[in-house]
């Protein structure tokens, strides 16, 4: 396991898991959201985003945190392992809600240098992470299940973790690279 992509619907804990796995392996962790989002909640154009992604993925070992399906050709070019955090809808939704409320309360900047923070206005807008989770959960579940059995990805090892306890067991079983 040298090049790992952690995927899952918003709220599953991809970032927390990716950080723990990267620390265990001694690899750098790369957060796709930090590469994608610019100040003022401005999205990067695909050309710019893909160039950033290619640059950070050029090293020998990494743990990549994030989905962005349109970037699959870039991020999965050399990936050897994909870890899908496939928690229940209830757990995923509640974690997304708890995280959003916590970030609203703390005024935490999401990606350094962007000034982007969650807010009540954002929470109740069409860009809401809660609405995103509600809409994407069933789509991601179906899409990721199909990807795991797609012959074009048979060279990739897929790991499907369905609970926080499975995540802890997996992290504990990993040996530093």
UniProtKB/TrEMBL annotation:
The lineage of its organism: Bacteria, Pseudomonadati, Pseudomonadota, Gammaproteobacteria, Cellvibrionales. It comes from Gilvimarinus xylanilyticus. Gene3D superfamilies: P-loop containing nucleotide triphosphate hydrolases. InterPro entries: ATPase_AAA_core (IPR003959), Cytidylate_Kinase-2 (IPR052922), P-loop_NTPase (IPR027417). This is ATPase AAA-type core domain-containing protein. Residues 6-36 form the ATPase AAA-type core domain.
């Amino acid at each position: 396991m040298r090049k790992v992509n952690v995927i899952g619907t918003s709220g599953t804990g991809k970032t927390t898991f990716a950080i723990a796995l990267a620390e265990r392996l001694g690899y750098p962790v790369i957060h796709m959201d930090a590469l994608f989002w610019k100040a003022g909640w401005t999205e990067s154009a695909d050309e710019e985003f893909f160039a950033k992604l290619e640059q950070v993925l050029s090293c020998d070992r990494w743990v990549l945190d994030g989905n962005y399906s349109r970037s699959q050709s870039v991020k999965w070019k050399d990936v050897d392992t994909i870890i899908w955090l496939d928690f229940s809808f209830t757990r995923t939704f509640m974690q997304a809600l708890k995280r959003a409320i916590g970030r609203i309360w703390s005024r935490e900047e999401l990606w350094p240098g962007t000034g982007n923070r969650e807010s009540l206005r954002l929470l109740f807008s069409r860009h809401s992470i809660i609405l995103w989770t509600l809409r994407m959960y069933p789509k991601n579940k179906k899409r990721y299940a199909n990807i795991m059995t797609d012959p074009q990805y048979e060279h990739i090892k897929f790991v499907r973790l369905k609970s926080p306890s499975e995540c802890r067991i997996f992290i504990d079983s990993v040996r530093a690279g």
